[in-house]
Each structure stands twice: as structure tokens, then as C-alpha cells.
Specification:
elongated; 32% helix; three-stranded antiparallel β-sheet; Ubiquitin-like (UB roll)
Length: 76
């Protein structure tokens, strides 16, 4: 598993752009993108076309901030 930090914006309600930055563990970059769409869709009820991904950054083990993602990737 690899760790990714994904940032972007999504449209919801009156606010045109809600920013987000999420760290997650995935095998490939495409899988990480699908997880983001599923996560934001289930949490906020937004459709995939309303989510704009600005950056996908693969993380090194020492750059991971989320303890759950760190445990999944490193086992520590």
C-alpha cells in the first residue's frame, strides 16, 4: 500500500467551493481517486462531477500525518 494526499474542492449547497485535503492508503493512484469520490459522495452527498481534484501527491513514510493511514502503510 502507498499513501496519498489528495486536495481539491467540491460544490455543495450555497458555497461554491469547499476545499478538502485528505490522506488515504491505496495500491494505485486511480484507486485513490475512486476512494475520494466514494468518500466525499457518501459523507456529503455530492456527485463525482461536483468534485474537482487539484493535486494528488504520493507520500513518503515520514510525511504521513494521519495515524490510521500510517498504520495501514507501515504497520507501526
Amino acid at each position: 500500500m502507498k499513501a496519498y494526499r489528495i486536495s481539491g474542492t467540491f460544490r455543495m449547497g450555497v458555497v461554491k467551493e469547499n476545499p478538502f485535503t485528505i490522506e488515504l492508503a491505496a495500491k494505485k493512484k486511480d484507486e485513490a481517486i475512486d476512494k475520494i469520490y466514494a468518500l466525499l459522495g457518501s459523507r456529503h452527498g455530492v456527485k463525482r462531477r461536483e468534485i474537482k481534484i487539484n493535486e494528488i501527491k504520493p507520500l513518503k513514510k515520514d510525511e504521513i500525518e494521519d495515524p490510521v493511514v500510517r498504520y495501514i502503510v507501515t504497520g507501526e
